[in-house]
Write a structure and sequence with these properties.
Elements lengths: L3 H12 L4 E5 L19 H4 L2 H4 L2 H6 L1 H17 L4 H12 L4 E5 L5 H5 L5 E2 L2 E8 L29 E5 L8 H13 L2 E5 L10 H8 L3 E5 L12 E3 L3 H9 L3
Parallel strand pairs: 1-2, 1-6, 2-3, 6-7, 7-8
Antiparallel strand pairs: 4-5
Helix pairs in contact: 1-10, 6-10, 8-9
The protein binds ligand BV8.
Length: 249
């Protein structure tokens, strides 16, 4: 059961904030049926060694196994629908143009399908294809033209197709991280939704926001590794809490 007094305090803070940032993690998509990494029961960490699958080394070790994992996850994302939490954020953004920035660690497209098409993607887009190696041709080949396979490969040079995500050990896209830093530094309220705070440097954005004066609100049914950065902890799920916080604003 959500604590109505906490919700009322956070709504008051949101009313007074000219700019709001929502920083989301895998828990944001849990109620859309997409497994999170960390949750013991359903977490992908429990089922796979992420270093084996979500890294270039793991992909090169066994491209077919890694590709099968991504194909399964892509099918899950395509079959999923945005949940009430995604829709509450998108509706708030429509009612208050320019006031909300969504920064997501997620590699699904549910924020975008709900309407937050300008979501800052820190870890890329799992539905996008890119080449494993840089294409040697001046006019790079298009991964969409790759010969079918698991993974698809270039018929000309054998280059493999990989998902357009940031793997462990890879640097986050500079432009996205810069945009995320600007958003968290400039917001009056940072809503941290559905993240364990275990993955860096994304997790560091929360203390950056706090140091810049943001009021930090963590929305999570469980404790997270960044709870000590919070001004308010809202124990609850994204699809329950976000509509309760945002729909009347
Ligand atoms: C890099 C794409 C450096 C792939 C992902 C310190 C600084 C910098 C780096 C590091 C550092 N310490 C360690 C590192 C290395 C590493 C890292 O962070 N390791 C961790 C495991 C310790 N970081 C990196 O490698 C990053 N790169 O640092 O490069 C560098 C420098 C120079 C030169 C070269 C390299 C890259 C990290 C990006 C990895 N890619 N995704 C793919 O998905 O296949 S991250 C991946 O894990 C997901 O995308 C997701 O973002 C992340 C998991 O985090 P969460 O989103 O928080 O999800 P999680 O499951 O953990 O938690 C879910 C939460 O939701 C839980 O708290 C749960 O309670 C809650 N929840 C559940 N249900 C609900 C809910 N909440 C609300 N509602 C619900 N219904």
């Amino acid at each position: 059961m959500m604590d109505e007094a906490v919700l009322a305090r956070v709504r008051e803070r949101l009313r007074g904030a000219t700019s709001v940032c929502a920083f989301t993690g895998a828990g944001m998509s849990a109620e859309s049926g997409i497994a999170t990494f960390r949750d013991a029961l359903t977490g992908l960490w429990a089922r796979f060694d992420p270093a084996q699958l979500a890294s270039e080394e793991g992909f090169r070790d066994d491209p077919a196994r890694a590709w099968a994992w991504y194909a399964e996850r892509r099918a899950g994302v395509r079959a999923a629908e945005p949940n009430a939490g995604h829709h509450a954020l998108a509706a708030f953004a429509r009612r208050h143009p320019g006031r909300l920035t969504v920064v997501s660690q997620n590699v699904d497209d549910l924020h975008q399908r709900a309407g937050n098409t300008d979501t800052v993607r820190l870890h890329g887009d799992m539905l996008a294809d890119r080449w494993l190696q840089r294409c040697p041709r001046a006019q790079a080949c298009d991964p969409a033209d790759a010969a079918p396979g698991t993974p698809p490969r270039c018929a000309e040079c054998g280059n493999l197709v990989r998902p357009g995500v940031v793997w462990f050990g890879e640097v986050l896209p500079g432009a996205a991280f810069d945009a995320a830093e600007r958003a968290v530094r400039g917001c009056g309220v940072l809503l941290v939704v559905g993240t364990s705070g275990a993955v860096w440097p994304a997790a560091g954005l929360v203390s950056l926001a706090r140091m810049a004066g943001a009021h930090v609100v963590i929305v999570n049914p469980q404790p997270s590794e960044i709870d000590d950065e919070a001004d308010e902890l809202v124990a609850g799920t994204a699809a329950e809490v976000l509509p309760a916080l945002l729909d009347t604003l």
